[in-house]
Design brief:
- Chain B is built from 20 helices and two strands.
- By secondary structure, chain B is an all-alpha fold.
- Chain B has one domain.
- A two-stranded antiparallel sheet of chain B has the order 1-2.
- By secondary structure, chain C is mainly alpha-helical.
- Chain C has a single domain, classed as Helix Hairpins.
- In chain C, about 75% of the residues lie in helices and about 0% in strands.
- The chains are: A mainly alpha (about 525), B mainly alpha (about 525), C mainly alpha (about 100).
Chain lengths: ~525, ~525, ~100
């Protein structure tokens, strides 16, 4: 905090600038492109780590806040800030991007691929750091373009279809977010006379019940599609399946978190009363997502689609944690966002490695791989156990906190979600058993085990999966205070009568606004 | 006879400076037309293009002079109150001048390529430009009608300019018949409004409406409806859009771009002035109508655009979708909505000029290479051109950090402030649908490999990929026969024009202050 | 017997409708063109009638503008028609089918 280094602005502008630099390098200079791209993403990781070190633990408000006027006509400002909720998401983003580049092999030397990945990094970081709603929206939308190009340009057979479906679903849903943001700001402006998109100021907007619910639904539609939350998930198996490894990894690891983060940061802060009113609905969707994702994953034989459905289940947990409105559950949800990013990234990399060796994603065509690739199988087992939520690995901590917290406030949903944990064990172990055990169908020596380079790419993820399972304390200390603030805010606003400060005129205008 | 005897006709005072830009364009056009006959040597096409650009630049300077004047002394009217010189008019004077300058650069290369000699193209463009300017400044329904015709008639001819292509003549005649039809409807609307209010002068109509409380005057409302039909044709709002795709496809490509930008500018300028400024009192009558028109325009443009194979037709439907967005600003019927519409027109005119400039180049000699397949692999053959086109398309999609996004933000904000949430949501959903066809084009440019040996491939995507799954599964872009995928020739003037449009789109998308402030000056006199 | 203004307005409206319907149903481009003229002149008649009823000269001057514009339209329209049909026989709108999507 003593330093005045503009961590957050640098975090966003560095990858964006690097993307521009790469765009200017002649594409024949493949090594240069690869080095610049990788170094830039490592530098972002460095800055994110420095910000983590400089982050004041035990303080729940925004830190490193930087505010500049951007488009004064519309009241849009470049305001960035970081709190315990965004801190580790930023750090995770910083970590996953260099890993994604490292896992992309020769592709990490394709000029446009690297440039788009860096643009995506800037967009994701901007989304996690923006305190201005419209700035958030700008980054939220901006991430679509690079993902579209990454899927469409470097994806699998049906990449055009998958990329288009992904883009249209998300863009269509953000129509509601866009109008919702503008409506919220209009209501705020009619109450205070100030046009601002600053989320800290908008928190004080007085919304009537219906207006709050409608705006909440508008915002949540966009976030739910981005995550994805059942039943808005139909794009995700296609997009995850057809994207290149780096694309799937970043989609599931980072982009999905943008949606979940939006729910925690904006829904809970801006519409506390609507959140309490509609919590049963969202909790049910989360619970259905858990069960549905698990069941479909159990019959899915395509590994990438399987992970897509298991992601749906895990994001269901996060949604339950967010809407349980208890400190433990929300802490667990934030932690689980980071954990899910880590083990899903590792899973996608492992699946890509299998594909490279076997040329298929289908579990049916894999058998006895354990015998042929013992190290890879070992890593796979570990990551899979983390995904199931076995104690001692990182997946456990988040899920446990969510379930414990939800049990306090919404008992029956917690019970259903627990069933999901059991199902997760079933489908993952089943898939593992099919692919890795039994009599090998491929001859010895036909495939090689994990190479040192592949191992090095996976190492940070594996280390963190183990480490965070054993010592989640440092994270919880930093996440806790911010989560407490959010939960307190929701409880104070929601369980109070509507504030008495509003004049009759204000009330009239807000009721007029819901028409 | 009795009528004439009692009235003495006074010649109105004419403030020539106030209509200087229009005079420069008309005079310049005539000068250009005869200049070819004054010298005996054959004048190269470039001379006319430079001349046309210079005339437009002079009109731009004159517009800025008037702007300075208006800022110092306030808005005023001239020629018996039939011409208004206010901020609103001047924004459009500047826009039309810019359109003309860019269009003359783009047209030059086209005319040279297609061997269409002579000054006619530029003369007609300048005349149409003067009509569009007059439409923005006109303060009298009759003058709006005359200006509309001054703008439209040259555009009919421009659409049929490329006499060797059958489609060009067909486009001209379709445009002409439907244009004349809409003009006739428009005039009849004027006559009815005149009958109901006793004047064709906009401020006088407005003051009549303000002093007399009119409840459901059938003649007036019918007149207003017919005016809306007439404008609807010009700006291609559904259900008056039938001509748009055919004319866009058939007209010579640079003329299509010019026509789109100019007709939208002129048409919307007059539409906004008449409906908001003059008939603002009756807004409860026309708002629901505009609301409905805006919705069908938005949706039809976006949905039909999806099924087009011809790029020019696709952009025709996209222009219908954009017209819907501009109507959203008017349907809000607030000054913020009007500013939004003006900003949208400004931004869209620049975007569409740039887009059609690229299409002109890709169209190649004969102006026929407009199938979507012509864009396959353009990203690898000519990365700079493709990237510029991609940016223009993303701008039209409304992706953040482009002017297109801010334009949508502007009109949607106005709609939300006017509590028309449904319209706002439908508009944004239509933008999402429209995004599909813009992206398809972008995807074609970047997503598909070229057949082996077609050159220009820097190997970015075709190198063996080792660290990754899924190589070799690429459907190598099977380019249908008959589609020319040779290298697109990019002449310097067009390249500069495209660069300018892209720069405007991106620079003012990130740093919108100056353009927004300028458009904010677009206040009506009345 | 004096004819009231309403009759003129009704006549104009009928002429306008005939013109509009004619333009939509007839397929011969020249006839369509004549229909447009009919519509314009219906508007002119309306202008004159209203000018007389309002005792205002502006409506009568408007007619001159409309006439001039109509003349200009005729020139250009016939020019376009001639330039097209020089190269093909017949003049019906159904022959124009090169453009469709």
């Amino acid at each position: 905090m003593t330093s005045t280094f503009p961590y957050l602005t640098t975090l966003i502008l560095l990858p964006a600038g690097a993307a521009v630099v790469i765009a200017l390098i002649p594409s024949a200079q493949r090594r240069l492109v690869q080095v610049v791209g990788f170094v830039a993403s490592l530098a972002v990781l460095g800055i994110a780590s420095a910000a983590t070190v400089a982050f004041t633990s035990g303080y729940g408000g925004y830190q490193f806040v930087s505010s500049h006027q951007w488009i004064s006509v519309f009241g849009i400002s470049w305001s960035l800030g970081m709190d315990g909720i965004s801190l580790f998401l930023v750090l995770m983003t910083g970590l996953l991007f260099p890993i994604a580049l490292a896992a992309s092999g020769e592709r990490a030397a394709d000029k446009s691929f690297v440039a788009w990945i860096l643009v995506l990094e800037a967009g994701c970081l901007g989304g996690f750091l923006a305190l201005d709603l419209l700035l958030f929206f700008v980054f939220f939308e901006l991430t679509l373009v690079p993902v579209y190009f990454v899927i469409a340009g470097w994806g699998h057979e049906r990449r055009g279809y998958a990329a288009g479906k992904f883009f249209l679903y998300t863009l269509g849903a953000s129509a509601f977010l866009f109008v919702g943001i503008l409506a919220l700001v209009a209501i705020h402006a009619s109450q205070t006379g100030v046009t601002t998109f600053d989320v800290r100021a908008l928190t004080d907007t007085h919304l009537s019940g219906t207006a709050g619910v409608l705006l909440f639904l508008g915002f949540t539609a966009a976030f739910a599609v981005k995550m994805p939350l059942f039943p808005f998930h139909t794009w995700s198996p296609d997009a995850y399946r057809e994207a290149p490894a780096a694309g799937s990894l970043l989609l599931a690891g980072v982009m999905a978190k943008l949606g979940a983060y939006g729910i925690i940061r904006f829904d809970l802060a801006l519409f506390p009363r609507a959140v309490v009113t509609l919590a049963p609905l969202l909790l049910s969707l989360g619970a259905i997502g858990i069960i549905y994702g698990a069941i479909v994953a159990a019959v899915e034989r395509d590994l990438k689609r399987l992970v897509a459905y298991s992601s749906l289940a895990h994001l269901g947990f996060i949604v339950i944690g967010a809407f349980a409105i208890s400190r433990e559950a929300l802490t667990g949800a934030v932690l689980q966002m980071v954990n899910h990013g880590l083990y899903t990234a590792a899973l996608f990399i492992l699946i890509a490695l299998l594909y490279k060796r076997l040329g298929t994603f289908s579990v049916k065509e894999m058998r006895g791989l354990q015998r042929r690739m013992p190290v890879l199988a070992g890593v796979f087992t570990l990551v899979m156990l983390a995904s199931i939520g076995v104690p001692g690995l990182n997946g456990f901590v988040g899920e446990f906190l969510i379930l414990a917290g939800t049990f306090l406030t919404h008992r029956w949903w917690a019970v259903v979600a627990t069933a999901g944990v059991v199902l997760a064990a079933v489908y993952l172990l089943w898939a593992y058993q099919q692919a890795f055990q039994g009599k090998p169908t491929i001859e010895a020596g036909a495939v090689h085990d994990l190479s040192w380079r592949e191992g090095l790419t996976l190492a940070p993820l594996v280390i963190l999966i183990v480490l965070l399972g054993i010592f989640p304390g440092p994270l919880l200390n930093r996440i806790g205070p911010s989560v407490t603030q959010v939960v307190t805010h929701v409880e104070v606003v929601a369980h109070q009568r509507p504030p008495q400060v509003g004049s009759p005129g204000v009330a009239l205008r807000t009721t007029g606004a819901q028409r | 006879m009795k009528l004439l005897a009692v009235l003495t006709i006074v010649t109105p005072h004419v403030n020539y400076v106030a209509i200087l830009p229009e005079l420069i364009l008309i005079g310049g056009a005539l000068l250009l037309l005869v200049s070819g006959q004054l010298v005996f040597a054959k004048i190269p096409t470039a001379f006319y293009s430079i001349g046309s650009g210079a005339i437009a630049a002079a009109a731009l300077v004159a517009s800025l002079v008037i702007w300075h004047d208006v800022q110092a002394r306030g808005p005023f009217t001239t020629i018996a109150d039939s011409v208004a010189v206010d901020g609103f008019a001047i924004v459009f004077l500047v826009l039309v001048s810019c359109i003309l300058i860019l269009a003359s650069a783009i047209a030059n290369d086209f005319l040279v390529r297609e061997g269409i000699d002579g000054p006619e193209y530029h003369v007609l463009a300048l005349l149409a430009g003067s009509g569009a300017m007059l439409m923005a400044a006109a303060n009298d329904l009759i003058l709006i009608f005359v200006a509309l015709e001054i703008m439209s008639i040259p555009l009919y001819i421009l659409a049929g300019m490329d006499s060797r292509r059958r489609e060009s003549g067909e486009a001209a005649i379709k445009y002409f018949v439907l244009g004349a039809f809409s003009s006739a409807i428009f005039v009849y609307g004027i006559a009815l409004v005149y009958g109901a209010t006793g004047s064709t002068n906009l401020p006088q109509i407005a003051s009549y409406l303000n002093t007399n409380i009119i409840t459901s005057n059938g003649v007036l409302l019918a007149g207003l409806g017919l005016l809306l039909v007439g404008f609807g044709f010009k700006v291609s709002a559904v259900p008056f859009h039938m001509w748009t795709p055919d004319v866009y496809q058939g007209a010579p490509t640079p003329a299509t771009g010019f026509m789109t930008a100019l007709a939208k500018a002129g048409g919307f300028a007059a539409l906004l002035r008449v409906f908001f400024s003059t008939f603002g009192v009756l807004r409860t009558d026309w708002q629901p109508l505009l609301w409905a028109i805006a919705i069908v325009t938005l949706l039809l443009g976006a949905i039909l655009g999806l099924v087009q194979r011809d790029v020019k037709r696709m952009l025709a439907y996209s222009s219908i979708n954009h017209a819907g967005f501009i109507l959203v600003g008017l349907a809000a019927a607030t000054s913020q909505g009007i500013s939004g519409s003006v900003y949208y027109v400004f931004v869209y005119a620049i975007l569409v000029l740039g887009s059609f400039a690229v299409i002109t180049l890709v169209g190649g000699k004969g102006d026929e290479n407009h199938d979507l397949d012509a864009y396959r692999g353009l990203g690898r053959r000519q990365p700079v051109l493709a990237f510029a086109f991609a940016l223009l398309l993303l701008g039209q999609t409304g992706i953040p950090l482009t002017t297109g996004f801010l334009a949508k933000l502007y009109v949607i904000t106005a709609a939300v402030r006017a509590h028309s949430y449904a319209l706002a949501v439908i508009a944004m959903l239509s933008a999402a649908i429209a995004a599909a066809f813009y992206l398809r084009l972008v995807f074609l440019m970047y997503g598909v490999k070229l057949p082996v040996g077609s050159g220009g491939d820097e190997g970015a995507l075709s190198l063996p990929v080792t660290g990754e799954p899924d190589d070799g599964l690429d459907p190598t872009g099977s380019v249908p026969t008959g589609v020319n995928i040779g290298r697109v020739v990019v002449p310097v003037p067009t390249a500069v024009a495209i660069f300018v449009t892209v720069a405007v789109t991106v620079v003012f998308g990130i740093w919108p202050g100056p353009l927004v402030d300028f458009v904010h000056a677009a206040h009506f006199l009345f | 017997m004096s004819v009231s203004a309403t009759w003129y307005l009704t006549l104009a409206a009928v002429l306008f409708t005939i013109g509009a319907v004619g333009l939509l149903v007839r397929r011969n481009v020249l006839v369509m063109f004549m229909c447009v003229e009919l519509m314009l002149n219906a508007a002119n008649l309306t202008f004159v009638t209203f000018a007389r009823r309002l005792n205002d000269i502006a409506g009568q001057t408007a007619v001159f503008f409309v006439l001039v514009v109509a003349a200009a339209e005729v020139v250009v329209g016939l020019g376009i028609i001639v330039s097209i049909y020089r190269r093909r026989p017949g003049a019906t709108a159904d022959d124009l089918h090169g453009l469709k999507g």
